[in-house]
Amino acid sequence: MSNERNAPAEIEAVRKGFETRGYICNAHIATSIFLAERLQKPLLVEGPPGVGKTELAKATAELLGKPLIRLQCYEGLDEAKALYEWKYGKQLLYTQVLKEKLGDLMAGAKGLKESMTRLHDFDDTFFSEEFLEPRPLLKALWQPGGAVLLIDEIDKSDDEFEAFLLELLSDYQISVPELGTIKARTTPIVFLTSNNTREIGDALKRRCLHLYIPFPDTDLEQRIIRSRVPEVEEELRRQLVAFVQGLRTLDLKKLPAVSETIDWARTLVLLHARELDADLVRNTLNVLLKFQDDIDNVDGEINALVTKAVQAR
Amino acid sequence: MTEVLGDFIRALRSADVRVSTSESIDAGRVVGLVGLDDRMTLRDALAQVLAKSEDEKAAFEETFDAFFAFDQFKSRPPAANDDRADAAETAEAEGGEGEDGSPQQSGSPSAPGSGGMGGEPGEGGEPSPAADLAALLERGDQAELQMALAEGARQAQLNRIRLFTQRGMFTRRIMELMGLDGLNEEIERRERDGNVAGAERLAEAREGLRGQVRDYVEKQLEIFTANSGRQLREEVLAQVRLSNIDRSDMRIMRELVRKMAKRLIALHSRRKKVSRRGVLDVRRTIRANIEFDGLMFHTVWKRTKIDRPKVMAVCDVSGSVAQVARFLLMFLYSLQEVLPGVRSFAFSGRLGETTSLFEREKLEEALVEVLREHGGGSTDYGQSFMDFEEIALDDIDHRTTVLILGDARSNYGDPRGDILKKIHARARRVVWLNPEPRTMWNSGDSEMRKLQPYCDKAVTCASLKDLERVVSELLRSAV
Question: Do A28 and B38 touch (CB under 8 A)?
Answer without folding.
Answer: no
